[in-house]
Structure formats: structure tokens, C-alpha cells
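Hi there,

I know you've been waiting on this one. I reran it after we fixed the sequence typo, so this is the corrected version. Both the input and the resulting structure follow.
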Amino acid sequence: MKREYQVLFQEIEDGWIMASVPDLPGAVTQGKDMDEARTMIREAIELLLESYRDNALKDTSGHAIWESMQVEVPTA
């Protein structure tokens, strides 16, 4: 399943690039340049979503119902 997220890139001290995903609190990282920042934020998103799913599975009873849902999210 593919999902799309808006990523915010900002130059910080010493020319480093900070990358964050406003829709995913905790998805924040940095890189020496844009390429590294893109690579690092992709990994951060993947790990964060994997962690969310693992925790949900661990905390769910056997009687839970899982369902997919699509929503419209306005972009900036």
C-alpha cells in the first residue's frame, strides 16, 4: 500500500537540511543535503508507521474489526 505525505524541508545551522512530516508527529530527521534528507525522512516515515502498526496489533483484541478508509486531506 502506498501513501503520500507532505514533507517540509528547512535549512538549519551549518547548512544541514531538517525534514519533517506535519501529519506524522515524530517523523523528523536531518541530512547534510537534500538527497540525504530525503533518504532519512523516507526511512523515518517507514519506521514510524511500522511502529504504529505493531503497537496497534499488540494492543488489539481478537474481536477487533480492521477496515481501510480513504479521506480527502487538503494540501498546503
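Quick highlight: The chain is about 35% helix and 15% strand.

Best,
R. S.
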